[in-house]
Here is the input.
Amino acid sequence: MAELSFREEVKQLRIGKGEYFEGEGILAVTKALLQSGVSYVGGYQGAPVSALVDVLSDASDLLNELGVHLETCANEAGAAAMLGASINYPIRGAVTFKSIVGTNVASDAISNLASPGVIGGALIIVGEDYGEGSSIIQERSHAIAAKSQIWLMDPRPDLQKVVDIVERSFELSEASNTPVMMELRIRACHLNGRFEARDNKRPKYSKRDLIENPIFNKDRISLPPATYVQEKLKVDVRHPAAVRFISENKINETIDGDLSEVGFILQGGMYNHVIAALKALGLADDFGQSRVPMFVLNCVYPLVPSEIEDFCRDKKAVLVIEEGQPNFIENDIKALLSDAGIRTKVSGKNCLPMAGEYVGSVLIDGFDKFFVRERPAGLDGKIAAAAVKEFEDNKRKVAEIIGQPLPTRPPGLCTGCPERPVFSALKLVQEQVGKVHVSGDIGCHSFATLEPFKLGNTILGYGLGLASSVGISSMMKNPVVSIMGDGGFWHQGLTTGVANHIFNKDEGVLIILKNGYASATGHQHIPSTGTNSRDQASEMNLESALRGVGVRWIETVGSYRVGKMITALKRAILARGKGLRVIIAEGECSLARLRREKPITASLLKGGARVVRTKYGVDDATCTGDHSCIRLSGCPTLTVKTNPDPLRKNPVAYVNDGCVGCGNCGEVAHAAILCPSFYKADVVQNPRFLDRFLNSIRSRFIGFMQRHQKATA
Amino acid sequence: MNSHDSKTRSILIAALGGEGGGVLSDWIISAVRSAGYLVQGTSIPGVAQRTGATTYYIEYLPVPASELSGRHPVFALTPVPGRVDVMIASELLEAARAAQGGYITPNRTTLIASTHRVLTTAEKIAMLDGRFDSDPLLKAIHALAKRVLAFDMQKAALDAKTVINAVILGTLAGSNALGIDPVHFENAIKDSGKSVSASLEGYRFGFDAAQGSLPRNAEIAASVPARIPLNEFPLETQFIVSNGYDRCLDFHNRKYAELFLERVRSILTVDRAAGGAERSWKLTNEGARYLALRMTYEDVMRVADLKTRASRFQTIRSETKAAGTEPVHITDFLKPGPEEICALLPPSMGNAFLRFLKARGLEHRFHVGLHIKSHTISGFLLMRLLARMRFLRRSSWRFAQEESATIRWLTATKEAAKIDYDFALQVAESADLIKGYSGTYRRGLRNFNLLFSEIVEPALKEKISAAKTLREAMAAANSDPESDALDRFLSASKHSTAKAA
Here is the structure.
């Protein structure tokens, strides 16, 4: 079961016409897919779109009734390739993944899908992971859409609008024989709102209504000479058809305002941000009525030239509000206005920043520059300047009081994480074998590159930890140690990394962190979980896969055994000439384990069963306060507190109430020979007679000794 | 069209991953909705929620949905600085971060914040005290907010055996900052159906706190009754001197504690001569502090003694929150190495033992791993046996080594006082370099010896003050655990002296 349970949401997926759906943006999209009559859905997990597939995994009854096929894909390329079903058959399908990274992985399939085009509606829903809270490199999906010529929707973040755009996207896809991509930003995916539902549509062809005759059409295969014809079709037929559909169906929206000399052209996804910023300046009301006229692009690619021309024709100047870079839309608008001979001044990145998320303060600052520059009639050009000054003043005031930059708080490994002890071991083994270059990967373990571990010299992509080591490894004195999670391993690490390493007879050490799930994205099942998302046994495991591609040096070590891990790592690093040495660090994701065990423990306790609860601690009196234990752990619950010793000035280490008793701190202190201050305390809950009996004898004896001891001191 | 008056109200929540910020946000949304208003919430969870700082943002329109005649409000997905009505921060640093981002403003914002600190990794990993000072953070939030409701909500949550989000919700409801009937907030908890009674208890605590006087953290007066007459020492130094005396008495015996006093007297004499009265006897204070710590180094006997105290057993019981009848089993992880063994051996045998190890390349690798179950009779007796070995202490190899370092330090401190008071203070503080166990201890001792032979003693010989150089060297020594910075500093300063010569 994934991290979140969607039992309630599944019920809502069934509601019909006129009823209201309440929930998160990404779940609204899921419902919209069912309303659109999809035959198949697939995807690869990643914030912020994981929930789309997760909720459908929990809704297998409903999917079976409708005959919809759900596939949890191996990676994004697999997901995009799935859309090949719509090339020859009039069936609708949708896939989802995180962008830009997922779209990059998928781009081979996307190109090969876009070229022949589709006859059934095909929709790619990408989570545009850009700005605050993003976990990836900052790039735009827009480029992918433009180069493959698939259409890109960027709906206004209002659930009703998003749902409508999903349904329209399928129609657009069919009208123009082109796959459509829809981008949803993080906050839109997690936006909590409501919309009026329609009935779910049962697809014409599905698992219940089978296709009798396979279709072969040589024109729909992406192989020359068909590809030359397909490229011509893209520009001569499909693009004009799309422009016609977008225009006729009024996908984009014009909002009138009295400051008619100027206007904003914006991505749909920016709409609420823009209204909020205008509201702060008194230029818009609570219902989105704005004094500045706006043209809202719910479809950002392709643009409809006539719509842009009409909006701009009588204006002195427009501001293009386009988040991210390069500024594709702004440049397109400038070009098409120039072609049409319209002399409206186009501003964009000259007022707004080239890079970064367009939050309220950024937009207000940009509006200030635009209004000062254009001075529209009927508006005090300095209207935004006051607001800008006010928040600058407040910020300055805070900075003056605090006097120095605040410490940052990046994410890190959770309490009890089985990956922490592995990195502790990797840090410690370097004291014995010397420094090593660490080739990092994508996953929770990416956080090991931060303090206190600082392990991972590069990160090149998901499942690419090992592959990204081969360029440098033959030039390093110590072998390169590569990291891979089991998520990355199945995503592509097995082939791109491991198999090819063996094939080239390369040297190196690979640590596979086997926690049993795609943990960072919400505990989706992967082959080494043991079961798939429908809890059917997978009968797949890492070790046989490794042996199958020819790995001979494999050692499996329990993650929490720091001492054993150090020994294994040392052996692996020193085993020169032995090819690829793989250490599988086995330890279930602690969040998943706790979630599974908590209710069981609670019911055992309630039933009076003997349960031992473990917590670690530090003795204040023997801790000398140099904090090396923290530098080797970074556990959120291992922290410091004011030294109770009146003579010592530095704070002592201290384990707070969040401790889950994983034992890492004690293991590390022991393995690194740090200090004798750590102790493990096992609390016996619901003690049996023998426990109580022993305890009473022990306490009496120890109590007597302690009293006696005091008397002699 | 004229400029618009917006009625929309906004709530920004800054929380840390795993604190239940999402649940809090859901409760607030549900309360606002049941009050009859249209509301929208959004968040940036994803991977940021794995222990990092994250935010939730809620907007609603306090006009009954029935009076909107079908019009739909447009709610924002991100806060605009200066437009936040209620700022909630589950931790003090995050409250200050919100102020820095411009989200707490004097004309608008009610701030509900917990004043406890969850330290960041950067603050925790410092070798000395890397904790950010809380005072300016508190000052900043009070200076910026229109109204502040701040207290240690984490403590309240722990007392109520619940999560901090319930206390925050109670405080929000009790503050009436949103003008929504508290019953809606209570119902939100009840409707969620999970840990309802514990959450409600936390909620009530927060509610009462917001309505009445906020709880104050009781200040514990730090005073230690002196066991000896200290009239000969200035009043300002009596606290440290008496603590030092007690510590030495506790470490070894009365005679040893008398030796401590003897040495402090000698520091006081030079302090007096150097005009210490005008410096609040700082040298005597700091000298006595580090002298006591030097003289009560952590050998096996000391560690075993501290680990068998009744007070320790009580602390562990309370820290683990063990109920009355629940047995608590304690496992201590000891791994004595050469220094610990030599704490028991006389100098000649200690040297022989170290030579033996060195010849085999084991000096840094020889360790005996012990997992001692201190709650059992055998484990306790083993610990006590170790503690009782302290009769061997004063004739041991380790004592000789510690004592020679202490005398070297004490002599230098007193000599330095004759040259420059600040230099003497700096020398006194250098004793802090020697601490910890095994590798940490060895590195500390190495750094201490280096500083003395390279900086302190040459300066004393030439009768010049090296306060500044020593301060910089200390900072370098404390900036990284590998001593790389110190080595760089020393070689650079050597280089520049050579150049100057």
Residues 439 and 482 of chain A are 4 Å apart (CA to CA). The two ends of chain A are 59 Å apart (CA to CA).
